[in-house]
Amino acid sequence: MKTSLDIIVRPTEIDVNGHVNNAKYLEYLEWGREEWYEAGDLPYDVLKRLGVQTVTVNININYRKECGQGERLTIVTEPHAVGRTSYVLNQRIFNEQGELCADAAVTSVAMDVDTRKSRLVPEELRKFFPKSV
């Protein structure tokens, strides 16, 4: 499952250099991941009922092109790989011209709501990832 989320860069997201602050890209990626979970009918409350929360443990991001105030951006999120207790989502941010502005691999761990320890990725989430060979 692949999702796309369109946003507009707001004035509060611009830093002293006149472009989007690097930390805001992480926020954009988070919005994209939330969109992905929603599209898979796995919003926070559903995951919690399954006894699981997702915890981001690593983000490897490449900043490719600066973005400015008022620009329309698209955040694309798609599943990459799933392991026993963790999974990786690939994310890309494009501008209106289709230019790649940033790309990231985001690793998350399935955490048991009660024990606060890692647990198996539930099938309801696992089903969205390509099958390993």
From TrEMBL:
UniProt entry keywords in alphabetical sequence: Hydrolase
Pfam families per UniProt: 4HBT_2 (PF13279)
Superkingdom classification of source: Bacteria
Database matches in InterPro entries: 4-hydroxybenzoyl-CoA_TE (IPR050563), HotDog_dom_sf (IPR029069), YbgC/YbaW (IPR006684)
Molecular function as annotated in GO: fatty acyl-CoA hydrolase activity
Entry's family note: Belongs to the 4-hydroxybenzoyl-CoA thioesterase family.
Protein name: Thioesterase
